[in-house]
Amino acid sequence: MSSWVSRTTASHNAQLITTAVVSGVVVGGAILGFQQARRIYRMADLKASIPDEGDPTRLTEFGAASGAFAPSKEDRRSMALAARARKGDFDHDLILEQLNRNRVFLTDDGLEKLRSAFVIVVGCGGVGSHATAALARSGVTKMRLIDFDQVTLSSLNRHAVATLADVGTPKVHCLRRRLEQVTPWVHFDCRNELFGEASAEAQLGDMNGQAPDFVIDAIDNIDSKVALLNYCAKNKLKVISSMGAGCKSDPTKILIGDISASTDDRLSKSTRRKLRALGVKDGIPVVFSTEKSGPGKAELLPLPEEEFAKGKVGELGVLPDFRVRILPVLGTMPAIFGLVVANHAILEITGYPHEYLPSKARDKMYDSILGGLQAGEERLAKFMGAQSQGLRIAVTKDDIGYLVEEVYLGRSIVSGLFSRLALVRWNRPSKAIIDTRTPGQMNSFLGMGDIVCMTKEEAQRHEREVLKGTKAPEDLYDTRVLELAKRKTAEAARFEQARFESAD
Q1: Domains of the chain (ranges plus CATH)?
Q2: How do residues 325-342 score in pLDDT, each as one tens digit?
Q3: Residues 352, 33: Cα–Cα separation, whole Å
């Protein structure tokens, strides 16, 4: 080894090569050392720029650092005025003068009802902020605001009162802070919280011994929305719910009516279906748009594949079960939804006459469809040689309503027609259809996942050729109908299973 070194170092070329290699190593080490040092210095600067958390009391009531978003002289003046006004130190005649237009419209009695009302607004974004502002300006003096979120730059295209100075502050405190400058006598109970089923009783409870006169649902998360509406329905709290304003642009298509009558709205459909599973099918007024999507219109696009590759979609959001996509929203539409919601609450609280779209009132149709399904099972049992008299089916009128409205959207899977509808078994039973496990009782082995929707004429042909004949559905229908039937029956079966599980 030493002789090789001697020979190598004796060569002039080898010396040059060795020198170059050593120099490269030295230079490379110097560069890497410099980069490492620069990273260390940058990290130190970054850490130094982060304010020390210190005493948590340094945070303001708005959730910001004490030195950030310092209130202006006008803000401090408004806050002081509001504090006095809430204690009664405000000229009553001035309040009536400010509310004079509402007073003339609603009469003294109506305005007094409004001024005595306690209203809860859940969700203080685009819709909820406009509803809150309209209610405060109209005379409501006791309001509870519930929202976990903060004002962002993207909120400013649709929020009723937020300014650049409010970015980063909780939405509930932003509303209170700004509206105190307009209606200083309003008592705001701000809850910077996420609404949920577990906390519903506390969040929708009394305010100083007064039960809520009205609840406004401006939530855009389905699970929270369903929890709120279900609680209100079960506890007989007056409520109105705003459906989706995203991807909508036509104000002439906005309607208010019973949730059972809402159409062409994905949020409404999902909410309606989940509520039906909880036993709530109607009786909730909602604001919704009948505007249909079309070429050139905004739409909610699917997540790109790279987002799915990051992990479970549910883990991509800030909070569990909350959307991870930006909804296309024209700033004017949430404002209109919010004002319509507030208008309804005002009319309801004051007793002012109003008429809206009724619920679909299809109970008679559901009774007829249920009777037809029952008769079809009896005919099939008799055809298969079984006793059909006294046969029962484990499908209720509410189940019929869910199948027709939510699963099949009120249309035949064969022709797409929506008149003279009927429900019928899809597949011919491979064994006896009578359940005799309970002595003295005959039930049909018929589940919601066995049933499809057709017109009466199509159902008669299906019964004749498939259920009693020799043909299979594949012999009678094209691929589109077969795929639709497969998807819809699976959907109905999942709903039936979920209903039994929720009952446990």
Answers
A1: 64-293+310-350 (3.40.50.720), 363-503 (no CATH)
A2: 567 888 899 999 999 999
A3: 78
